[in-house]
């Protein structure tokens, strides 16, 4: 655990004079490859016979005129 306590020396090479380190992107905890703003909600959840979502009642229910 000495490496976590910062007791070991830093072996990274020093940056040249006058240069700044690159900004690292802040990663989302659950979505590390894509930007959090590009996430779209999942509308069709569940199995094909048991859909849960905003349009699920329209596809599953039959009205008397449909029969």
Please tell me about this protein's structure.
With 67 residues, this protein is largely without helices or strands. The protein has helices at residues 2-5, 56-60. The mean pLDDT is 70.
In short:
This protein has 67 residues and is largely without helices or strands. It has helices spanning 2-5, 56-60.
Can you give keywords for this protein?
little secondary structure, ribonucleoprotein, 13% helix, elongated, 67 residues, single chain
Could you outline the blueprint of secondary structure elements for this entry?
Elements (H helix, E strand, L loop, with lengths): L1 H4 L50 H5 L7
- What is the β-strand count? 0
- Round the mean pLDDT to the nearest integer and report it: 70
Helix content: 10-25%
Strand/helix succession: HH
Distance between the termini: 70 Å
Q: How large is the count of helical segments?
A: 2
Cα radius of gyration in angstroms = 26 Å
Low-confidence stretches: none
User: Strand count, sense and closure of the main sheet?
Assistant: none
Organism: Cricetulus griseus
Protein name: 28S ribosomal protein S18a, mitochondrial
GO cellular component, one term: ribosome
Keywords: Ribonucleoprotein, Ribosomal protein
